[in-house]
Amino acid sequence: MKSRKLSIPRRGLLLAAGALVFTASAFAADAPRVKFATTAGDFVVEVYPDKAPKTVENFLQYVKDKHYDGTIFHRVIDNFMVQGGGFDAKYVQKPTRPPVAHEGQEALAKGGRRNVTGTLAMARTNDPHSATAQFFINVKDNAFLDPTPIPPGDPVPKFEYQGRVYENTPRAQLLNAPQLFGYTVFGQVVSGMDIVNKIKASPTGAGGPFPSDVPKTPIIINSATLVK
């Protein structure tokens, strides 16, 4: 998901059961939560520092710094995602700290979420390690945005990607392939998904420097507050 300068393509370019359920529930109960109060209504997200620690730390610092207050959802595509956190109501891009390292593949290896409906992920440019403050919320299952796990071995004996099979590929070649990074999921909406769906259904058009996908009625984040 690029950010305008932070976009992603409109469409595509991976104990016992009872114990697992208990563990996930116990963790969710302790996950930090952030409330977004917007002009369309309020929603709450929870984030997962055990899956993507650097990404979560980066996001929460922007929340604590009040970076998101007064920013807009500047890119809204129904049946795809809603993106915000980078521009104010006059379409001026807010200054940010240096980018955070991409953690998508590591998060999946730790049992993290994929880009499914309601999940929160970092926006970035074509450089996987360019994410700063902008985020997006998936409003449908977007499997093509998921990081691609790399099998063990060097060279990797067999690797499949987009229907093709690669054999005896140097590991460094795969680790440095930008198209395999995907987008880092670090949280999900836990209440107010109806508000997110309201945002995704907003009529859009041109706005500021953007030729399309901007809500005709600005949707402003009045505040983003750590509530837990």
CATH topology name: Cyclophilin
Kindly provide the radius of gyration, computed on alpha-carbon positions and rounded to a whole number of angstroms.
Answer: 18 Å
Q: Domains counted in the coordinates: how many? A: 1
Main sheet specs: 8 strands, antiparallel, barrel
Order of helices and strands: HEEHEEHEEEEHEHEEE
Overall description:
Strands 1-2-9-5-6-4-3-12 form an eight-stranded antiparallel beta barrel. Strands 7-8 form a two-stranded antiparallel ribbon. The model is unreliable at 3-27 (pLDDT under 50). 38% of the residues are buried. It has five helices and twelve strands. It has a single domain (17-147, 182-226), classed as Cyclophilin (Beta Barrel). The chain is of the alpha+beta class.
Can you summarize this structure?
The protein has 228 residues and is α+β, with helices and mostly antiparallel strands. The chain has helices at residues 17-30, 53-64, 104-109, 171-175, 193-200, and strands spanning 33-38, 41-47, 71-77, 81-88, 119-122, 135-138, 156-161, 164-169, 185-191, 204-207, 210-215, 220-226.
